[in-house]
C-alpha cells in the first residue's frame, strides 16, 4: 500500500474533523455536520501559521482518500541538555481502514520526521481508557514512564 | 511572601539550569559547572523567539533570588472543538525554599495566565517516580486520566 503524507490545507478541515469525531472518546467532543464551526477554522489558521506545528493528512496513494491524521508539535526546552521534543497528538486512522498497518506506518513516518528535525525525544499522552492504543505504542518502543495529567480551564 | 513572575532573559540561564539539575531525576540529565553549554544557549534562543513559549523565572520579591522556574507552551489544535492547550514542563522550586507554598503559588499563577490566554485545557506529564508531585497535582485539581509515553530518538 502506498500512503502520501502531506501538510493539511484548509480544504482538508472537514475530513480531519470527521476523523477526530470518528472515535469512541472523540464523538462527544467534536461538532460535526453542517458548516465547519468557526472555532475549527480559527484553530486551523493558528496551526498553519506556526512553523513548530505540523498537521498531517495521510492519503491512500491510489484512491487519494484521506485515511489518517496526526499533529506534531516541536517544543524547544532547556531540560535534558537543551533537548527539542516532538509531541504527537490527535492521531486517528479512518475506522474502515483499520487493520492495514496504517497507524504503524504513520508513526514510523512521524518518528523519522521528528529525528530529521533534531528532536531527541518523542512524547504523547494516551487516555487510560484506550488499552489497545497502549499495546500499540509499546510495540513501537514508547514507554509509559509518566502520568499524564489534565485540568479543564473552562 | 511576595513572588515576582517574569519572562526569562539570557542572564538567567545559569540559575535556571542549576534549578533543573537540583533534583533527584534532573541531576544526571543536566551539564552544570563551568561555562554554559552551547546547547542550552541555542535552546534558549529558540524559546525566546517563539511567542508560544513562556519560560518563566520566579523571584523572591524581597531578596530577588531566583526561587523557581517553569515553561509554558501554548499548543493550538483541532480536537475538542479547536481547543488551545497550555502545557507546563520543567517545573522546579529551589530545594532550600521548599515547604513555603512557592510551587502552589507558581501553579495558580500559571493556570490564571493560561486561562487569560484562552487555553481551555492545561496538561503536564510527571515521572511515575515522583509520588509527592502527583499528590500535589491532584490537590490542584489535575486528573491523571492519561498515560504519558516517551520514546528516545537518540
From TrEMBL, chains A, B:
<dbReference type="Pfam" id="PF00583">
    <property type="entry name" value="Acetyltransf_1"/>
</dbReference>
<dbReference type="GO" id="GO:0016747">
    <property type="term" value="F:acyltransferase activity, transferring groups other than amino-acyl groups"/>
</dbReference>
<keyword id="KW-0808">Transferase</keyword>
<dbReference type="InterPro" id="IPR016181">
    <property type="entry name" value="Acyl_CoA_acyltransferase"/>
</dbReference>
<feature type="domain" description="N-acetyltransferase">
    <location>
        <begin position="3"/>
        <end position="154"/>
    </location>
</feature>
<protein>
    <submittedName>
        <fullName>GNAT family N-acetyltransferase</fullName>
    </submittedName>
</protein>
<keyword id="KW-0012">Acyltransferase</keyword>
<dbReference type="InterPro" id="IPR050832">
    <property type="entry name" value="Bact_Acetyltransf"/>
</dbReference>
<dbReference type="InterPro" id="IPR000182">
    <property type="entry name" value="GNAT_dom"/>
</dbReference>
Amino acid at each position: 500500500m502506498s500512503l502520501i503524507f502531506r501538510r493539511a490545507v484548509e480544504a482538508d478541515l472537514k475530513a480531519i474533523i470527521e476523523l477526530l469525531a470518528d472515535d469512541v472518546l472523540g464523538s462527544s467532543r467534536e461538532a460535526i455536520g453542517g458548516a465547519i464551526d468557526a472555532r475549527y477554522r480559527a484553530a486551523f489558521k493558528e496551526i498553519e501559521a506556526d512553523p513548530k506545528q505540523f498537521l498531517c493528512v495521510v492519503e491512500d496513494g491510489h484512491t487519494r482518500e484521506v485515511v489518517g491524521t496526526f499533529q506534531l508539535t516541536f517544543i524547544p526546552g532547556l531540560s535534558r541538555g537543551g533537548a527539542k521534543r516532538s509531541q504527537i497528538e490527535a492521531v486517528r486512522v479512518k475506522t474502515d481502514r483499520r487493520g492495514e498497518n496504517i497507524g504503524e506506518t504513520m508513526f514510523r513516518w512521524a518518528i523519522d520526521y521528528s529525528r530529521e528535525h533534531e528532536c531527541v525525544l518523542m512524547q504523547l499522552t494516551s487516555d487510560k481508557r484506550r488499552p489497545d492504543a497502549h499495546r500499540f505504542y509499546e510495540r513501537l518502543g514508547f514507554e509509559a514512564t509518566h502520568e499524564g495529567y489534565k485540568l479543564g480551564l473552562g
